[in-house]
C-alpha cells in the first residue's frame, strides 16, 4: 500500500511546517527590522507556556479579581517582569499600596517596555498598558497616583513575574 505509507510519512514530525509558512516568512523579511526584538507566538504556543489564568489576562485582556492576585500585597525588593516574555516592566521601589487590590506602581522601570493604548471597552475611556515586547495586556494607567508622577499603573499580578533582587 504505497499510498498509505506516503500519508504516514507526511503525518510525521514536522508535518505542521507547510511550505506555505515559509513563503510568508520570506515576504515578511522586509519588515524584519522593526519586528526583530518582538516576541511573537501563536495562540497555541502562548497557551503551552502560560497558566490558563495568565493566558486569559495577559493575552486576552482579562482582569483578575481584586485582592486575589499574588502581588497586590507583596513587598519584596526586586523587578516585576512580563510573565510572557520576561521584559523588565516595574521596580518594587516604584510600587505603592493603592488599596485597590491590584499591584500598583507610579512609574515603569523601563519606559520603552510599557506601551499605552486607548481603551474604550466596558463603556469607559481608559488607557490600557501593554508590554511593548510581546503586546501582553498588563492593566491600565490612571492619573490619580502619588507623586512624583501622579500616575497609578494598576497591573494584574497574572501579567507579572517577580524577580527578587540579589542580596549581597
Ligand atoms: Zn512581554
CATH class of the domain at 52-164: Mainly Beta
The set of bound ligands, ions and cofactors reads: zinc ion
Largest sheet: 6 strands, antiparallel
CATH topology of the domain at 52-164: Metal Binding Protein, Guanine Nucleotide Exchange Factor, Chain A
End-to-end distance, in Å? Answer: 68 Å
CATH superfamily of the domain at 52-164: Peptide methionine sulfoxide reductase
What proportion of the residues form beta strands (DSSP E)?
15-25%
Class of secondary structure makeup: alpha+beta
Q: Order of strands side by side in the largest beta sheet?
A: 3-4-8-7-6-5
Order of helices and strands: HHHHHEEEEEEEEE
Stretches with pLDDT under 50, minimum 5 residues: 4-33
- How many β strands by DSSP? 9
Q: What gross morphology would you assign?
A: globular
Mean pLDDT: 85
- The appropriate CATH architecture of the domain at 52-164 is Beta Complex
Total count of helical runs of at least 4 residues: 5
The value of Rg in angstroms is 20 Å
Helix content: 10-25%
